[in-house]
Amino acid sequence: MSNARSGGGANRGGAKGGGAWIIWRVLLLAQLREQPVRSLVTVIAIALGVALGAAVYLVNSAALNEFGLATKRLVGEADVVVRGPQDGFSEQLFVRLVQDPAVSAASPVLELEVALPGRREPLKVLGVDPFRAASLQPAIMGEIGAGIFSLFQSDGIYLSSSAAQELHLGRGDALKVTVGSSPQTLRVLGVLSAGTYSQPLGLMDIASAQWTFGAIGRLNRIDLRLNPGTDVDAFRRHLSTLLPAGVLAVAPQVERDRAVTVTRAYRVNLNMLALVALWTGAFLVFSTQSLSVLRRRRSLALLRALGVTQSQLQFALIGEGAALGLAGSLLGVVLGLVVAAAILRLLAGDLGNGQLHAVGASLRAAPWAMLGFFAMGTGVAGIGAWLPARTAARQPPARSLKGGDGDFSVMARSSGYSGVALLALGAALSPLPPICGLPLFGYAAVGALLFGAVLLVPGLTVRVLGLAPRTQRIVLDTAVAQLRENVGLSTLSLASIIVSFSLMVAMAIMVYSFRVSFDEWLGKLLPADIQMRTPFGSDTAYWSLADQTGIASIAGVARVQFRRSRQFLLDPARAPVTLIARGDTAAQAAEELPLVRSDRMQTASTVKPAWISEAVQDLYGYKPGDYLDLPLGGRSERFIVSGIWRDYARIAGSVVITRRDYIDATNDRSANEGSIWLKPGASSPEVEAALRARFARGDAIELMSSTALRERSLQIFDRAFAITYALEAIAVIIGLTGISFAASSTALARRAEFGMLRHIGMQRRQVVGMLASEGILTSAFGVVYGLALGTGLSVILVFVINRQSFNWSIDLAIPAWQLGVLSVTLIAAAALTATWSGRAAMSEDAVRAVREDW
Amino acid sequence: MAEPAVLRLENLGKRYSPARPPIFDGLEIELRAGEYLAVMGESGVGKSTLLNLLAGLDKPDTGRVLLEGIELSALDDDAATLLRRRAVGFVFQAFHVLPYLTVEQNVALPLDLLGVTEPERGRRTVEMLSAVGIAPLAKRHARELSGGEVQRIAIARALVHRPRLLLADEPTGNLDPRSAAQTLALLRDQVKANAGAGILITHSRAAADTADRILVLDAGGLKPMASCG
C-alpha cells in the first residue's frame, strides 16, 4: 500500500512538472503569436535596462582597472608615498627621509600639471631622479633603458605613447610648455611604448624639471620603500607626525583607490539609472502579464477546469514573463558589451563626468558579472510576472468562466495599507545620512514612495470617482462607472502613467532647479565684464606681479581683481581641495561669494577667515566657527570657517581665503585667475586683443566676456543634461505604452459590451467617446497624481540625492510651464491612445461580439 | 386608415458571398402592433442573420426591411442606430448587462440614450423593474445576481423605453427550465402590455409555443409551422 501510494505520488509529481512545462510552452507560444508587438516592447525594455547596467559596469571596471594599473606603475614598488601640496615642500625632507634606517630606497618626484600653449588640457609631467626611480618605478624606467643618461639633458623629456599621439610629437620634436606667462621649449627624447604607460605623461630628470618650472629645491612627492620586516603602517603613522604642514604619508593603495573613491557617487548614480530602466522593464512585464491574464481569464479558467493545478498554472505564467526577461537579458548583455566597447574606444571610458577618462582602457572579460546581469534581467521579469500569475492561478475557475474583473479588484483594493506603510517608510528613510558617501537611503526612499503611491491608487481611484456626480450624460456616466467598478484594470493603466510621469516630473524639477541655481550662481560669481585665467588645472602657468600690473594698465581697464588658486590634499583618500585666494578684505571676499550660510561673528574674529564650499562641509565635517588649518608656505596656518558657499565648479571642494592672507602666508604674489571691469565706453574685444598682445603666447590665456562665459556655461549645462530630456521622452513613451496596452486589452475584453451598447442604440462615436472619456479621466487623474508624487520625489532628488551625491545644494524651482504643457500633452495623447484602441476593438463586428459568451 | 405594420419584410434575401448560395431569399413577413412571433430553425439556417437584418445591424442583398414604414437599408449607420435606439428592444441569450452598473442603471440605459431626464427616467425605470419583478434589487450590481434575475434586467432594459419592436435571440438558452418559463411568460406579457410587436428566435418548441404564431426558417424560406395552430 505504502509503495503504491508513493508510486502514485511520484507519478503525480512527474505529471505536474511535465504538465507545467507543456502548459508554459502552449501559453507562451500563443502569447507570442497573439501579442508580438507587446512582447517585443517588453523584451526591448528589459534589454535596455540590462544593457545600460552591463555597459556602465564594463566601462567603469575597465577604466578603474586602467587607473589602478597606471597608478601602480607611477607609484611602483613603494611602501609609502609622501605627498605634499602642489607648490611642494623643501627637498631637505628627502635628505632626512633617505637617512632613516627603516628606508631602503627613496625616490624624489616633482609631479606637475604643465600648461601647454594653445591647449586646454595640461600635461602631467613627472620629474624623477632616474637612478633612484629605476628601483621604485622599474616598469617605466626599464623602458628607457640605456637612454636613461639622455634624461640628464636640461630640456629633455620622454613622452608616453598617448601623450605623443595627442600632441602629434615624435622623437626630436620640440614641446612648448608655459611657465608663468612665458613659453619654454622642451625636446622630446623618446616615446615610451603604449604598454608601458597608457595615460598621457611626460618624464623628465628632476633637476631639469625643477629648473624649467621654477621649483628649484622643491619636491611634491617622495616614494619610499622600507626595509624588509618594517611595520609599514606603524612607520607611516610615525612619519605623519614628523612631516611639515600639508605633507601626508599615504599608503600606495590609497593612491590607487582615489579614482574609485572620487567617482563612486557618480558611478552609483549611473547604476541606479540602469536599475530604474531594469525595473521599468519589470513593470512592463507586470503590466503586460496582468492584462494578458485578464484577457485570457476564460481560457485559463478552462485549463483549471480541465485539471491544471494552481501551481502548474502559476509556474507557467511566471515562466512566460521569465521567458521574455530571458530574451531581453540575452539581448541586453550583448548590447551592453557592444556599447561598452564603443564607449571605451571612442570616449576613453568617460561616462560624462570627466573623472574617468582612461586612455588605453580596454574591455575586460567579466563572465560572472555578465551572468549576474543576465540573471537579474530574467529575475526581475519573473518577479514582474509573479503577482499576476498568482492572482490568475487563484481565481475561482467558475467565476472566471463567467467573466468580470473579479479578484483583481480585491487585490487592488487590499493594497492601501501596504501603500501607506511604504509612504511612511519612504518619508522616514529620506532624511537619513549617506552611507560611505552614497545616498542609498535616498534611493530607497524614492523606491518606497513610488511603490507606496502606486499601491494607494486603487483606493484613491474608488474614492475620487465615488465623489463624481451623475451628469445625466450617458457617455461620461458610463465611463465613470466602468472605471470605478473595474478598479483593478484602472490601476494597471494608471500605474504606468503615474510611475513614468512622476519620474519625469521629478527629473524635470531637479534639472530646472539646478539650472536656475546654476544661473544665479554664475551671476553672482561673474560680476565683471571679462573673465580670464591660465589653462585650467595647470601648476606652471601664472601671472607674475609685473604681468598683473601690465594687465591693469591696459587702456580701457577700470579695475582688475586677481585670484590665485591651487590644490592641496585635506585627506589623501579624497581628491584634492582647491584653495582660492580672492578679495583684498574679508568683507569683499564674503560679499563676492554666493554664500549659503555665513557667520558674521566669526568674520569679525581676529583669526583669519576662510569660507568653505558645501563639499568641504559635507566631506570633511567643517562648519562655521570651526578652525581650519591650511598648509601654506610650508607652514600650517590657522583659519576660522566664516561661511559656507555654493561651488558648482569644484566637486571635490574648495576653500576661499583673502588674497592678502594668502600673500602674507606664502609670499606668493602670482595669480592665475582674474576679473576685469571695463571703463565706461571701453570695447571688450579691444581690451581682450590688447591683453593677448601683452603675452608671448596670448592664446595661452583663457579669456572671455562674462556674458559669453555665462552663455557657454549654460550651453554646456544644457548639453550635459540633454540626456535627461531623452529620458523624459522615454518615460512618456513608456507611460503611453502602458496606457495603450491597458486600453487595447480592456477594449478587446469589452467587445461584447460595446456590441450590446451598439445594439441598444449607442452610436459608434458615443462608444468611442466613452473610451476617450475613460482615457482622459484615467490620464488626468494619473497626471495630477504624478505631478504631486513627482514633486515629492523631486524634493528627495534635490535635497537628499543631489546633496549627498555631489555635495552641493540646489534651490527648488518648479518649471510650471514645462510641466503644464507636458501634462496636457500626456492627457491628450492618452485620450488618443484610448480612442485608437477603442476603434480597433470596434472594428470587430459588434453583432458577432454580442454572441460571444462572457 | 389602418395603422402601418410595425415590421415588414419584402422579398428579403441575404448571402455571405456571391460564390455561395443565399442563406435565405424572398422572405416576406408583416408584423402588426401586439403581435408576438416565434421563428424557429436549425443551427446555421440564418436565424441570427435575419435578426441582424431586422435590427438594421446588417444590410440585405435583396429586398428591404421596413420598420415603422422606414426602410432600414436606406439609412446610414447613425440614422439606423437612432431608429434602433428609439424603436427596438433587444434580449440576448448571454444577457449582456454591464456588470459595473447597478440594476436600475442597466435598465435605464436606453432612457439615458434617448435623453429622458428625471423624474420621468426614474419613474419609468421603477415601473419596469416592478413589472419584471426585480424592484427590490434595483441598487444591486448585476454581477451579484442569478442568471434568471439578470435576464429579467435584460428584459426590463429591452422594454423600458417602450419600443415598437422587441427582438429576443434565444433568451432562455442559458436558463434553467423554471426560470426559462418565467422569462418567456414575462416577455409575452410585456410585449402585449406595451402594445408593440415581438419576435422570438428560438430552438425550443416550448419557447416558441408562447408566441402567437410560429414560423420556421429553412432553405426554402419562412413557412408557418405545420402543427401550429
Keywords:
heterodimer; A: 854 residues; alpha+beta; 10-stranded mixed beta sheet; 9-stranded mixed beta sheet; 21 strands; B: 229 residues; alpha/beta; Rossmann fold; 6-stranded mixed beta sheet; 7 helices; 10 strands; 34% helix
One letter per element, helices H and strands E, the order of chain B comes to EEEHEEHEHHHEHEHEE
The average pLDDT of chain B is 82
Taking pLDDT < 50 over at least 5 consecutive residues as the criterion, the unreliable ranges of chain A are 1-16, 404-408
- Arithmetic mean of pLDDT of chain A: 80
Cα separation of the termini of chain B? 29 Å
DSSP helix fraction of chain A: 55-70%
N-to-C CA distance of chain A? 46 Å
Structural class of chain A: alpha+beta
What's the CATH class label of chain B?
Alpha Beta
Rg on CA atoms of chain B, Å: 17 Å
CATH superfamily of chain B: P-loop containing nucleotide triphosphate hydrolases
| Outline type of chain B | globular
Oligomer: heterodimer
Sheet with most strands: strand arrangement of chain B: 6-7-8-3-9-10
SS-based structural class of chain B? alpha/beta
CATH topology term of chain B: Rossmann fold
Could you give a short account of the major beta sheet of chain B? 6 strands, mixed
Assigned CATH architecture of chain B: 3-Layer(aba) Sandwich
Chains forming the largest contact: A-B, 32 and 34 residues
